[in-house]
Amino acid sequence: MHFQPVRRSSTSGHYSTTLQNIINGIFTGIQGKGVQFAISLGDFCYSGSSSGAGVPQFNDFMSARGLLSAPFLPVLGNHECNANTNGNCPSGSYTGLMQDYINTIVTPSTKQSSP
Question: Rounded to the nearest 10 degrees, what angle do helices 55-65 and 17-32 cross at?
Fold first, then answer.
């Protein structure tokens, strides 16, 4: 098996077309399997930590997530905290990126109906 690197984002801040197609395929595939519930383990974006920086990628993810009718639980990853791979979430304060994650991914996910 051979994996090739996938460009994470375009110059517009959105996922690259290749990455969007992969994520769409994952959600389409698990929808086809009839899953009752899905958990995603974070790292929805790769962007700066300022407010608004991750929103294009969060929106791309949620567009793909719309392909799944089952309830979905998003879990915060380190990239949603401070955009770094070598740090953890700050204690007691939110970065702009964390607030965008809450507004764009968590809040819509809490409005789902139960199975």
Answer: 30
What single-letter amino acid sits at 90? Answer: P
pLDDT in tens, 86-97: 666 767 777 788
Domain assignment present for 92: yes
In angstroms, the first-to-last Cα distance of the chain is: 36
**Which region, left, alpha or beta, applies to residue 34 given φ > 0 means left and ψ of -120 to 50 means alpha?**
left
pTM of the model: 0.80
Per the structure, the complete domain to which residue 86 belongs is given by: 17-24+36-110
CB-CB contact of 100 with 52 (8 Å): yes
CA-CA distance, 25 to 44, in Å (whole number)? Answer: 15
| Two structure tokens written together for 48 | 């700066």
The domain tally of the chain equals: 1
